[in-house]
Amino acid sequence: MRVLVTGGAGFIGSNYVRKVLGGAYPGFEPDELVVLDKFTYAGNRANLAPVEQDARLRIAVGDICDPAVVKQEMPGTDVVVHFAAESHVDRSIAGSAEFVMTNVVGTQTLLQAALECDVPRFVHVSTDEVYGSIDHGSWPEDHPLAPNSPYAASKASSDLLARAFHTTHGLNVSITRCSNNYGPYQYPEKVIPLFVTNLIDGLSVPLYGDGGNIRDWLHVDDHCRGIQLVVEGGRAGEVYNIGGGTELTNRELTERLLKATGRNESAIRRVTDRKGHDRRYSVDIAKITRELGYQPQVDIETGLAETVEWYQRNRRWWEPLKNC
Ligand SMILES: NC(=O)c1ccc[n+]([C@@H]2O[C@H](COP(=O)([O-])OP(=O)(O)OC[C@H]3O[C@@H](n4cnc5c(N)ncnc54)[C@H](O)[C@@H]3O)[C@@H](O)[C@H]2O)c1
Fold first, then answer.
1. What is the average pLDDT score of the chain?
2. The CATH number of the domain where 155 resides is what?
3. In a domain, 92, yes or no
4. Ligand 1 and 65: CB distance under 6 A
5. In this predicted structure, what is the pLDDT of residue 150?
6. 128 is an active site residue
7. Where are the beta strands (DSSP E) in 46-167?
8. Strand partners of residue 174
9. According to the model, what pLDDT value does residue 245 have?
10. Which pairing describes strands 121-127 and 180-182: parallel, antiparallel, or unpaired?
């Protein structure tokens, strides 16, 4: 079996690659796993260091928007797991062209090549941010899409393309929509690694607005476990929400990180709220639970403690990224 993982050098994609090659998903043992990654600022070979000696791993440096590259890597593939994306909301507010290019055009390029090469399975990794913001309750998968940031809008567009390739062409594609992830190897522009590494260094942490925005935090291992359930058992043309971590306001999250790093509230620096900042995300995970037996396994206490410890032990990984 040959598996093509796009964006496999990023935070979540590399976790998935390490898990697959590490035997975390018994019965799913590829003969070859190809990581197709452009190595943007977010792609990092060090994320694959624990598996770089594995003879089944091949790293292809290339852009998913380039049909020649994609046509070269796609033939013979049994499963595509598509993580590659521009993923940082703040960057999409500063400039959205790259987001439309990679997230929309790149996804279309992959879907088209998968169709032409008769790839039997394609999983498109998306986000709960495509639903917009919800004050009460949780979104089921058939909730209308109302993305608010250019990042979320570009992901929603790619979801619709994936769906259309199933409806029009019968491509065996499923879509996952996950809540906020945390864990090791997350680029230190995202809130948890940014705050943890600032706190370790005795710096302040920038808290947006009133700190009341709510996110459902899920450990990256649980996200990848959910993706794998969808890879193996998800139905074609279907969307699966993945979440069920712990809802925290940004203020509550910050307090936990302050405690874990031995700092106090004086480290908090209030900054002007993010433009169009979604107040709350919450996905209903009844479908993936019922159909595929998904349940998150990492509780937030343990997951956050281990994550903070990882950044404390791995300064060599994050220090060069903070300084660039
Ligand atoms: N981080 C989260 O909390 C979260 C939550 C839900 C869904 N997601 C989705 O999961 C996926 C992975 O997110 P992440 O946090 O690991 O992102 P990331 O930014 O850490 O990694 C993205 C990877 O894609 C690669 N890439 C970017 N543009 C490319 C291109 N044009 N061609 C080839 N490779 C390219 C980068 O080099 C990098 O390795 C994304 O699709 C994202 O939308 C993320």
1. 97
2. 3.40.50.720
3. yes
4. yes
5. 97
6. yes
7. 57-61, 79-82, 121-127
8. 123
9. 81
10. unpaired
Q: Using one digit for the tens of pLDDT, what is the confidence trace for 106-138?
A: 999 999 999 999 999 999 999 999 999 999 999
In this structure, is residue 145 part of a structural domain?
yes
What local confidence, expressed as pLDDT, does residue 49 receive? 98
Full domain range(s) for residue 104: 2-181+220-245+280-297
Indicate the number of domains in the chain: 1
Q: Listing from the earlier edge strand, what are the strands of the sheet with 246-249?
A: 180-182, 214-219, 246-249
Q: Which of 128, 159, 221, 278 is catalytic?
A: 128
Residue 102 within any structural domain of the chain: yes
- Does 37 sit in the ligand 1 pocket, CB within 6 Å? yes
What single-letter DSSP state applies at residue 110? H
Residue 179 CA to residue 138 CA, distance in Å, equals 11
CA-to-CA distance for 256 and 265, rounded, in angstroms?
11
Tokens of 294: 């998904």
Give the residues across from 239 on adjacent strands.
175
Q: Side chain identity at 274, as an amino acid letter?
A: R
DSSP one-letter code for 145:
P
**Ligand 1 centroid to 227 CA: how many Å?**
14
User: At how many degrees (to 10) do helices 11-21 and 220-233 cross?
Assistant: 70
CA-to-CA distance for 293 and 286, rounded, in angstroms?
10
**Residue 215 within any structural domain of the chain:** no
Which residue type occupies 121? R
pLDDT at 196 over 90: yes
- Residue 323's pLDDT is what? 73
Active site residue 311: no
Q: Which residue has the tokens 């909730």?
A: 143
Instruction: Calculate mean pLDDT across residues 33-52.
Output: 98
